């Protein structure tokens, strides 16, 4: 039995897929995007103890059982690998009853991690979702990168299906979905990020190249599993924005929603701000690029 590492659960969300959905954010990502709005989900806690020292409410403490097997399905390596590995029990224990969500621990952490995570079995997570199941249209798994806990997904998705709910995955595109028909058969679709088209710029922006996300775009669209595509538009980089939008839009069928997201600096870590700036991408730039996308056949293009 696998255990998922959950960063947070939003019971009701209307921005994580169509309709009113529960969004489950997993801990751990294989990318390190400069523009990430929740960088505390990127890595797992390494047990340095700095957050324990800084917590003003004593909600954190070191775990004397750290390092013992927890049976947690988490990431191995980077890129397109599909394996999970057994993880150790958490190095830091979090007491939600004492926590006031001041985020001192997140601001203190040098590792882009969070001690405020829940270790949940598939049955426990499904139990949480069951409470609000009559009031939602489905569940969206996000992150971090949810496919890094692939084996846990294989356990929990059938339980959620048993509640009569649909399931979407929110992915950065670095998981090779074509190699995993078992997972693909369980889900309704994938909300796919296309972050950049130029290989050098994409690696500078995220730490990985664009080749696999674009292959996923083509494959998922053929398989009828592409829910939507999203691209973030950056201020002061109109040529890069247009290059990416053109490359993605030219491949999309008219019925596929293509979201162009205006970059916003809120929550972005300092090195990302140094690279991308503190300004919000203008509405004019977003609408210019949306017009280009629609002219190339992406009739479902919208700006956010």
Task: Give an account of the 3D structure.
The protein is α/β, with parallel strands linked by helices and 304 residues long. It folds into 2 domains: 193 residues, TIM Barrel, CATH 3.20.20; 110 residues, Aldolase class I (TIM Barrel, Alpha-Beta Barrel), CATH 3.20.20.70. It is built from 10 helices and 13 strands. A 9-stranded mixed beta sheet has the order 7-1-2-8-9-10-11-12-13. Strands 3-6 form a two-stranded antiparallel ribbon. A hairpin with a 7-residue loop joins strand 1 and strand 2. Helix 3 runs parallel beside helix 4 and helix 8 packs parallel to helix 10. It is globular. About 6% of the residues have low confidence.
Radius of gyration: 19 Å
CATH class of the largest domain: Alpha Beta
Annotated CATH topology of the largest domain? TIM Barrel
N- and C-termini, Cα separation: 39 Å
| Sheet with the most strands: spatial strand order | 7-1-2-8-9-10-11-12-13
């Amino acid at each position: 039995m696998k255990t998922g590492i959950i960063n947070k659960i939003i019971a009701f969300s209307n921005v994580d897929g169509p309709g009113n959905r529960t969004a489950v954010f997993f801990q751990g990502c294989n990318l390190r995007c400069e523009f990430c709005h929740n960088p505390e989900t990127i890595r797992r806690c390494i047990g340095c103890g700095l957050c324990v020292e800084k917590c003003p409410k004593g909600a954190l403490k070191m775990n004397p059982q750290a390092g013992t097997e927890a049976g947690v399905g988490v990431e191995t390596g980077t890129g397109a690998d599909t394996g999970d590995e057994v993880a150790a029990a958490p190095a830091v224990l979090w007491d939600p009853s004492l926590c006031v969500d001041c985020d001192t621990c997140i601001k203190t952490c040098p590792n882009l991690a969070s001690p405020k995570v829940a270790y949940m079995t598939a049955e426990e997570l499904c139990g949480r979702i069951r409470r609000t199941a009559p009031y939602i249209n489905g569940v969206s798994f996000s992150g971090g990168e949810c496919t890094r806990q692939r084996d846990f997904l294989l356990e929990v998705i059938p339980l959620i299906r048993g509640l009569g709910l649909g399931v979407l995955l929110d992915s950065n595109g670095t998981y090779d979905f074509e190699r995993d028909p078992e997972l693909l058969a369980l889900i309704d679709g994938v909300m796919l990020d296309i972050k950049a088209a130029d290989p050098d710029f994409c690696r500078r922006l995220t730490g990985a190249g664009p080749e696999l996300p674009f292959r996923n775009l083509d494959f998922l669209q053929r398989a009828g599993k592409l829910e939507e595509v999203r691209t973030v538009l950056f201020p002061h980089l109109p040529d890069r924005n247009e290059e990416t939008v053109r490359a993605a839009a030219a491949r999309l069928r008219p019925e596929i929603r293509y979201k162009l997201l205006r970059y916003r600096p809120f929550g972005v870590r300092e090195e990302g701000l140094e690279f991308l700036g503190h300004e919000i991408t203008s509405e004019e730039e977003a609408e210019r690029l949306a017009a280009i996308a629609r002219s190339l056949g992406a009739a479902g293009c919208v700006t956010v």
